[in-house]
Amino acid sequence: MTQEKTNNIEIDLGQFFRSLVKGLKGLLKLLIKALLFYKKKWILFLILFILGGVGGYFIEEALVLNKRHKQEIILAPKYSTIPYIYDFVENLHIKFKDTLFLKEMDLDSSEIKDLKKIVIEPIIESKDVLDKLQIIYKGQNYFNKFMDGYEDEVLKSEKYKSFFKNHKLTLVFKKENKNNAKISKQLLSFIRGNQYYTKELSLIQKQTKSDLEKNKNTLVFIEDYLDKLNKKPIAQTNEMIVVGDESKIPTITSLIDKKASLLETINDQEKILELDTQLVDVVDYGNVVRDPVAIHKRLIFLLPILLCVLVSFIFLIKNSSRKLENFINN
Fold first, then answer.
1. Is residue 168 very low, low, confident or very high in pLDDT (cuts 50, 70, 90)?
2. Residues 6+ apart with CB under 8 A from 194
3. Which of 116, 100, 47 is nearest to 311 (CA)?
4. Which of 17, 250, 252, 291 has a C-alpha 20 to 30 A away from that of 152?
């Protein structure tokens, strides 16, 4: 009984291996036939591949480039508005689902239907970071602190985002629409209309104006005093005769230094009063233009392959039909 089972197993294994070898021979024969077929028709498939590549290029160009537009606006946020602006822009995809918010912005769903995405990112300038660190680490070796974190990805993080003066707001649209330009205009208007930051801006402007007047009066006093000393120097000394603590008695040199410092401060304050009148200044207001996005090159390779597969399938069906016809006739 055991011997009979062993013989049956040997027979089954033998049949299995013979079937396996037969299948491999059939597969190898099929592969050789396919190679011979493509060798015979190589000119046809080369033409198909070239035509498919050219067709894929033009199809992808038409689908991608002609239906995407974008607008790039360079912004210069003032004071501490950068976190607010970034948070506002990054949550717009949620806010735009709210009809009340759209109404508040004087927009409707039909006007934003072609808006694909809105992103904002800092325009990285190493000088901006160095200037900021010089203020934060005054009198310290701020340069080393900057170099420790000088990596592009790190500079884009929250840590350095508020250091940069200019930021790029990009709006991407699916296609050209007369309402596209209105969206960016309403966004900027809404951001500038924030009541809290508007009050803060008004207070800063008021304080700056008051400080500017005081600094100008102090500058006039110093200039008049230096002018008098120039016309009639104090005999045998370079110091001013002022009653007070000896360490705090100003000298002509200290007054000249004070004058230079005041001039720099006055210049900065005049810039604030003249330039910082909005929460967000627009450095460059770009128009909505066709987006020169690089072709992804998927169809350039995919279409030739599909054409070759389709033609191969047609030849296979044709050959199978001929064999079936011969079989029926015989």
1. very high
2. 81, 84, 279
3. 47
4. 291
C-alpha dist (Å) from residue 224 to 237, 267, 286: 19, 20, 50
Q: What is the DSSP letter of 295?
A: P
What is Dmax (Cα atoms) for the chain? 137
* Residue closest to 141 by CA, chosen among 152, 130, 149: 130
Tell me how far apart the alpha carbons of residues 75 and 89 are, in angstroms, rounded to a whole number. Answer: 13
- Per residue, the 3-state secondary structure of 221-246, as one string, reads HHHHHHHHHHHCCCCCCCECCCCCCH
Nearest 5 degrees, angle CA 125-CA 129-CA 135? 145
Which alpha helices (DSSP H) does 179-330 contain, by range? 180-192, 195-231, 252-275, 298-329
Assigned token pair, 283:
């450095």
Confidence at residue 10, expressed as pLDDT on a 0 to 100 scale? 56
- Look-up of token digits 């350095």: 160
124 phi/psi in degrees, rounded to 5? -75, 120
Let me know: does 124 contact 164? Beta carbons within 8 Å: yes
Tokens of 165: 């003066």
Q: How many residues does the chain have?
A: 330
The token pair that represents 80 in the structure block:
């501490």
The 3-state DSSP class for residue 123 equals coil
| Residue indicated by tokens 């790039």 | 72
Mean pLDDT over 286-301 rounds to 68
* Burial zone of 172 (CB within 10 Å; 0-12 exposed, 13-18 middle, 19+ buried): middle
Residue 311, SS3 per DSSP: helix
Burial of 42 (0-12, 13-18, 19+ CB in 10 A): exposed
Tokens of 250: 């100003």
172 and 70 in contact (C-beta within 8 Å)?
yes
- Quote the pTM value: 0.58
